[in-house]
Design a protein that fits this description.
Elements (H helix, E strand, L loop, with lengths): L4 E6 L3 H12 L7 E5 L9 E5 L10 E5 L1 E5 L4 E5 L5 E5 H13 L4 E5 L8 E3 L2 E6 L2 E10 L11 E14 L8 E6 L8 E10 L2 E10 L5 H16 L4 E15 L10 E3 L15 H16 L12 H16 L4 H11 L2 H8 L5 H10 L2 H21 L1
Parallel strand pairs: 1-2, 1-11, 2-8, 5-13, 11-17
Antiparallel strand pairs: 3-7, 4-7, 5-6, 9-10, 10-11, 12-15, 12-16, 13-14, 14-15
Helix pairs in contact: 1-2, 1-4, 5-9, 7-8
């Protein structure tokens, strides 16, 4: 088949652009790439945070680094040093600007914005047919990074919904050396709710309200909670809003994408990028982009996100079950983790680099009866359903 492209990437967000940048650096046998993005314009609409590791690819884009983290409940707190692996902030605006500059220098990669498919891609015996308002594209491989339909209750065990405002205050308020990673003080107990504060200066910070809840929450759903969080964090100071961000991340997806066929893979937040128990995705996307670009360069097709180990899946699933069943325990559980697990071990665990020893420390830090209780409920659930039937 004569193709229009070796690869068509659906979606030009973090995952799609990361893969395109890798192929721009070393195309190999994947020399003709088309990226189709629904947005007309890119904006600085989100931030990605992660702990520094050995990969320096985006170090120049990191705008802030912190060496201290705090997790706080209504009656306790844990402050830890992460100087060996600083917590880093990368703004999406800087990432998009970098990606666009890279792709502009490589004519073999085309980025088309404001493009929606007119119908679902059609699998062929040796590729894909992609219909767009610009015309029909024939592709040898197809990578779909689009989020798909709107998040709905039941498609994930929990949804991580957040609403944040970057604010500038009229007087010093924030400690620029310490991130408030999870502040549960003032939150209710009907769901897992906390405030996340990234201090950018003594008078500037990104303040976010985050919920782990079975129901995905819109910005309007979170507005009142966010206003209360801002009031608590500002301590009476006046503030102007510089920008806002809202997002919904899956925590344990219950279903896979139905689309399948030869030389196809799905990637991104709704296809394995987001770690179920945390929602962290940026570094996982970069590892996937490295792996997928390599197989495409070698002419072996595309690959999706690598599956988590069975142990990671089991630990994440159990933790999410506990948070779902007993959200009032969340504050104590997270304070325990940061207070009792050596910080390097906990960072490795949260960043997908855990050893067996790291996992053992995490398990030892948590109250066993809470998790045994949930294991018992899970074991009894099939029998209960059968008895009711």
């Amino acid at each position: 088949m004569v193709t229009d492209a070796d690869l068509v990437i659906l979606g030009g967000g973090c995952a799609g652009l990361s893969l395109a940048m890798r192929l721009a650096e070393q195309p190999g046998s994947c020399r003709r790439v088309v990226v189709l993005e629904a947005r007309q314009h890119y904006q600085n609409d989100r931030t990605w945070c992660f702990w520094q590791d050995s990969c320096a690819r985006f170090d120049a884009l990191v705008s802030h680094r912190w060496t201290q983290l705090r997790v706080r409940s209504a009656h306790d707190s844990a402050v830890v040093s992460c100087a060996q692996s600083p917590y880093q902030l990368l703004e999406s605006g800087a990432f998009y600007q970098k990606a666009l500059a890279v792709l502009d220098d490589h004519p073999q990669i085309e980025l088309h914005r404001g493009v929606l498919l007119t119908q679902a891609p059609t699998p062929l015996s040796d590729g894909w047919l992609v219909e767009t308002p610009l015309g029909v594209l024939r592709a040898a491989c197809l990578v779909d990074t689009r989020p798909g339909q709107q998040p709905v209750r039941g498609e994930a065990r929990l949804w991580q919904s957040f609403l944040g405002h970057e604010v500038r205050t009229d007087r010093p308020v924030f400690d620029p050396n310490c991130v408030e990673l999870m502040d549960f003080a003032g939150a209710g107990t009907d769901t897992v709710e906390f405030t996340y504060v990234l201090p950018l200066a003594v008078d500037r910070a990104l303040v976010e309200t985050t919920l782990f809840d079975p129901q995905p929450r819109s910005a309007a759903d979170l507005a009142d909670r966010q206003q209360r969080a801002l009031t608590r964090q500002l301590h009476g100071a006046s503030a102007e809003t510089i920008r806002s961000e809202h997002g919904i991340l899956p925590m344990g997806l219950s279903a896979k994408r139905p689309l399948s066929g030869p030389r196809y893979c799905a990637a991104g937040l709704y296809s394995g990028a987001a770690r179920p128990a945390t929602g962290y995705a940026f570094q996982r996307i970069q590892r996937w982009a490295d792996a997928c670009a390599m197989t495409l360069r070698e002419g072996k097709g595309c690959v999706g996100h690598a599956a988590d180990s069975w142990l990671t899946q089991a630990m994440d699933d159990l933790f999410l079950r506990v948070l779902s069943a007993e959200p009032q325990l969340a504050a104590d559980l997270f304070v325990r983790l940061f207070a009792r697990v050596p910080t390097p071990r906990l960072i490795r665990f949260l960043s997908d680099g855990a050893t067996l020893g790291d996992r053992a420390c995490v398990v030892a830090a948590l109250p066993p009866l809470v998790f045994l209780r949930q294991l018992m409920r899970t074991a009894l659930l099939p029998a209960t359903r059968q008895a009711r039937a």
